[in-house]
Amino acid sequence: MPFTELQSKLDERAEQGLLRSRRTLASPQSPYIIVDGTAYLAFSSNDYLGLANHPQLIKALQLGAQQWGVGAGAAHLVNGHFDAHHQLEQQLANFIGKPATLLFSTGYMANQGVVQALVGKADTVFADKLNHASLNDAMLLSRATVKRYRHGDTAQLSQLLSQVQSGRKLVISDAVFSMDGDVAPLRELLALCEQYDAWLYVDDAHGFGVLGAQGRGSLAHFGIQSERIIYMATLGKAAGVSGAFVAAEQVVIDTLVNNAHSYVYTTAAPPALSVALLQSLQLIGQGDELRTHLKRLIAQLRNGLSDLPWRLMPSDTAIQPLLIGDNKYAVRLSEGLRERGIWVAAIRPPTVPQGTARLRITLSVAHNEADVDKLIGVLHELAKEF
Ligand SMILES: *Cc1c(COP(=O)(O)O)cnc(C)c1O
Q1: 201 and 338 assigned to the same domain
Q2: Residue 42 lies in a domain
Q3: Distance 233 CA to ligand 1 centre (A)
Q4: Interval 116-151: pLDDT, tens
Q5: Which of 73, 133, 238, 366 suits 6 as a labelling partner, its CA being 20 to 30 A distant?
Q6: Which mutation among 44, 104, 108, 173 tests ligand 1's pocket best, with the greatest number of atoms within 8 A of CB?
Q7: What CATH code is carried by the domain that includes residue 208?
Q8: Which residues line ligand 1 (CB under 6 A)?
Q9: What is the domain-level CATH number for residue 336?
Q10: Distance from C-alpha of 370 to C-alpha of 91, rounded to nearest angstrom
Q11: 124-128 and 169-174 strand pairing
Q12: pLDDT score for 227
């Protein structure tokens, strides 16, 4: 058995400050968590609207379970597609302003399904180098030719697009980059897709519910809409529950229903989750005041950290990474914060490029100004010590 070999790989990782491990929460997701019996003020979740433990969503999930039970019991194409799924798909289509949507069990699966169903060997995928790992995996699995462009570099993308004469072309980008917090130039990407007759696949995991009027996401934020945009958003981040959906033209959705393996060959998500998500969608739509509060917290944090030796990355979203660089140093800082009661995750390669380890600070509407002040104060203490 090659156990010693596995162990030596893990030891190697540990040596480089790259070993990963889990911590077990003993409380619901919120800015105030309990881990290993200790209370922490947390700045690490993607629960941007504080919905993961919202009383109205808990109630909706309970009612959903009473009405539909706890499990779907089958795949959507067998007999696992419920009225609750159907209602949610329709409301999401209205909310995003697309003709149709399709639910997936996770964002990871949505990305595998869409890319694999839409492109193959004869086709080309154009991808931002900082796209999420699930998109990178998806394009490799699709067997399409892959061309990656420098982060946000539309000039390079234009050049790459101009070199491909045959097959389908699919441009793929995070809308809000998950480890950087900056926003993709979606307007320019769409213009290039029009010029070169390509599709644009937008992963809005961190924009849906947060950006745009009523939280309608990155397309609303930029005021863009096009048949050639295929939109994906996840439902386990700002929406507070679990799952994902793809919004597109009906013919695209029909293609996914028929060809996307991660849709066809898996048990449907519990319909009770869709009942909770219908409630979540209402709260998102009514949440403009919450989003204004979030913007204020973002400004407060950026002001408060502007004189640190470490630099905040250029972002005006709820993702506010503090660039550290060295892996072990980032881990030590994260531990230093923890010793002072604050939970911020250190993000290291391969999740981010070599030499760009960072503290990924995320803000939520569930934080208040005193919470952000506390983080600012403790980071300044650590800056003096380190
Ligand atoms: C989290 C995330 C995903 C995966 O979504 P899950 O529902 O968590 O599987 C996909 N893309 C991006 C950009 C993400 O941040």
Answers
A1: no
A2: yes
A3: 8
A4: 999 999 999 999 999 999 999 999 999 999 999 999
A5: 133
A6: 108
A7: 3.40.640.10
A8: 106-108, 111, 132, 134, 174, 178, 203, 205-206, 234, 236, 244
A9: 3.90.1150.10
A10: 37
A11: parallel
A12: 98
